[in-house]
Specification:
Helix content is 12%, strand content 33%. The strands form ten sheets. Strands 2, 6, 8, 9 and 10 form a five-stranded antiparallel beta sheet that branches. Strands 12-34-35-36-37 form a five-stranded antiparallel beta sheet, with no helix packed on it.
């Protein structure tokens, strides 16, 4: 007889000699919680029917650029380096054969803590919905973006649910979800909100339909720039062989998994894997996301979608072979292409990491050339990471450029100060693959460089801050087709520059260089601009600032601010603000480089959380620097701005 209370389940587990622990958060008299499941496994691919997958061959055709993972693959012998690239991480090179199945596999892989980083988003709660087949694939997308691009990327289950009019009680197949994501992309919560927090508000009729009725989800009404806010993925790969699955988990990332669920499963917790009780009865199919394995415990490490109060803070250890978990295939994919909006905090100045190239992570650089600007780009899927020169455009450039990728058709957009001391907007139209001359706008007395970002105000307003004559700053914005002045603020300002961003706090933030040689942080929370801390000394040029992932241990965290500024002695100072400390202290981390005139760009990209910097030297040459866990390194000279 199946247990109906946690106390009865504890008695059954003890009587059968099973080692796992019933969740201690629940009293013996508490009825066993039965959260929703919902996987229809009638057409789900079976492991025995899946063609073999050669993980080593996949790595050979397109190795990862994540420096942390790549270093591990070199140590395993799966990747043989032909050279070191100029980004501080290993360049794609030849790969060795995998050898015998499972050769070199570590005994434990856990993407919640790999190479000291967390790559798994927070636990969701499907509550009583039958939507596990949507939650599992969505968790997979989030993990793969984090692994392949080193950025947190929460997605919305509601994007699929609302678009496909899925009632709360509708079961389904994760294959359909992954196929829909491959065809349509999947957007984030800021685009299509969905109740997936824990515990969340599920008091509406959708979650509690009247008896014998079907309540459809809210009407699907995404914003007009939805496509520019979606992660795009390729077709999935099905893996049936256990060794191939483990090699995929170790060398590529997590997998979608389906299994049978019995009445004792909800009661599991602890550090001993779940083994089904002989007394438990069958409930149905369930879909989750495998984030690792542990051969010392003979189990899979699985992210569930039942909230953080069940399991081990929302995760499960499931014994190998349990409940058909290994009779079903496991599904994964490579080469996610995240939207520019996801990456918008990770770059400042003239360089972005775009979705172009085979790995969807090329560097795109805009730099002055006389009174024109030149578009440079680096192919981050090629072995030697070559820089190439594309177009040279415009005839009125009088500052370094500030550059971003936007949610508007994934267009590249840039703004610079003109020779007439106003502002000029250009954009790269992805549809025509051509640069388009936009409008001239703004003050007639702008000085220095420009801060420019896309915010979540409106559908996706453009925000600009620039210094003007007299030592103040002006904030301009574009909501729709027209630019408008918001407000003037500040005093004693030398230059603002490419340090404007919208932080994870929701604020607009910037750092301006003052006439006295110090830097000052300003922020706006939707109201007025507020002057904050002053730091540094002897600064004569603009600063580049981003919000990176150091300090953001989870997708709900706030990463630290990273800032680089050129000094009169030809070095670059790297500063950072500790956003985990309530006092928000600014600290100078290091000085590096030589003969530097200006910092052109600062970026945190897909190379294992490395910081990437482009500078203009005093001889007008552009040079690349990067920082990995070994410190700052001088990279290649790209070209001239003269």
């Amino acid at each position: 007889m199946s247990a109906s209370t946690y106390g009865q389940l504890r008695q059954q587990i003890a009587a059968e000699g099973l080692k796992w622990t019933v969740n201690p958060n629940f009293a013996d008299t508490d009825p066993i919680i039965h959260r929703g499941i919902g996987a229809d496994l009638s057409k789900f691919p079976q492991a025995k029917d899946v063609k073999p997958v050669d993980v080593a061959a996949l790595l050979k055709s397109m190795p990862t650029t994540n420096a942390l993972l790549r270093r591990h693959l070199v140590n395993r012998g799966l990747v043989v380096e032909s050279q070191l690239n100029t980004s501080g991480s290993s360049a794609p090179g030849a790969t060795a054969d995998l050898g015998s199945p499972g050769a070199g596999l570590p005994s434990v892989v856990d993407w919640r803590n790999r190479f000291t980083w967390n790559f798994v988003t927070s636990i969701r709660d499907q509550a009583q919905s039958e939507h596990c087949w949507i939650y599992g694939p969505t968790a997979l997308v989030e993990c793969m973006v984090r692994i392949e691009h080193c950025v947190w990327c929460d997605r919305s289950e509601g994007d699929y649910i609302e678009a496909n009019k899925v009632p709360v009680s509708q079961t389904g197949d994760p294959v359909n979800t992954l196929n829909w994501y491959a065809e349509n992309g999947v957007c984030g919560q800021d685009c299509v909100p969905w109740v997936d927090s824990d515990p969340g508000n599920r008091s509406g009729s959708y979650w509690n339909p009247p008896p014998n009725t079907t309540v459809l989800p809210p009407t699907y009404n995404p914003p007009s720039n939805r496509d520019g806010k979606t992660v795009k993925i390729p077709a999935f790969t099905a893996l049936g062989d256990i060794n191939a699955q483990k090699n995929w988990l170790d060398a590529i990332g997590p997998l979608v998994v389906c299994m049978d669920i019995y009445t004792d499963f909800q009661g599991w917790s602890g550090q001993n894997p779940y083994i089904r009780s002989a007394s438990a009865t069958y409930r149905g199919g369930h879909c989750m996301c495998v984030v690792g394995y542990d051969d010392t415990k003979n189990c899979w490490i699985v992210k569930n979608s039942w909230g953080a109060d069940l399991g081990d803070a929302g995760f499960w250890l499931i014994g190998y072979g349990q409940c058909n978990i290994d009779n079903n295939a496991k599904l994964g994919f490579q080469f996610s292409n995240p939207d520019p909006f996801t990456k918008r905090r990770h770059h400042a100045g003239g360089m972005i990491e775009s979705g172009d190239g085979a790995l969807h992570r090329n560097f795109e650089l805009l730099a002055p050339m006389g009174n024109a600007f030149t578009h440079w780009w680096r192919d981050n899927s090629a072995a030697n990471l070559p820089w190439a020169k594309a177009e040279t455009l415009a005839n009125d450039v009088s500052s370094f450029l500030t550059f971003t990728g936007t949610s508007y058709d994934r267009n590249f957009e840039t703004i610079y100060r003109t020779t007439s001391n106003n502002l000029h907007h250009w954009y790269f139209d992805q549809a025509t693959q051509k640069w388009v001359d936009g409008v001239t706008f703004g003050p007639a007395n702008a000085t220095g460089c420009v801060g420019f970002c896309e915010s979540n105000f409106g559908i996706g307003n453009f925000e600009v801050v620039v210094a003007v004559a007299g030592g103040t700053m002006e904030h301009w914005f574009r909501a729709g087709p027209n630019w408008a002045k918001s407000v003037g603020f500040g005093a004693g300002v030398l230059t603002a520059g490419p340090s404007l961003l919208q932080s994870t706090y929701g604020n607009l933030e910037l750092v301006a260089t003052l006439e006295n040689g110090q830097m000052q942080h300003w922020w706006r929370d939707g109201g007025t601009w507020k002057a904050d801390q002053v730091f540094g000394a002897g600064v004569k040029s603009h600063a580049c600032m981003i919000q990176g992932d150091f300090g953001a241990a989870t997708d709900m965290g706030n990463g630290n601010f990273e800032l680089c500024v050129a000094m009169p002695d030809g070095t670059v100072q790297h500063w950072w603000r500790n956003n985990q400390n309530p006092a928000f202290p600014w600290t100078m981390s290091a000085a590096f480089g030589s003969n530097v005139d200006f910092v052109v760009a600062l970026l945190q990209g897909s190379f294992g959380f490395n910081l990437e910097v482009i500078v203009q030297r005093k001889d007008a040459m552009l040079q690349h620097y990067w920082r990995d866990d070994g410190g700052w390194h001088a990279g290649v000279v790209i070209g001239t701005t003269a």
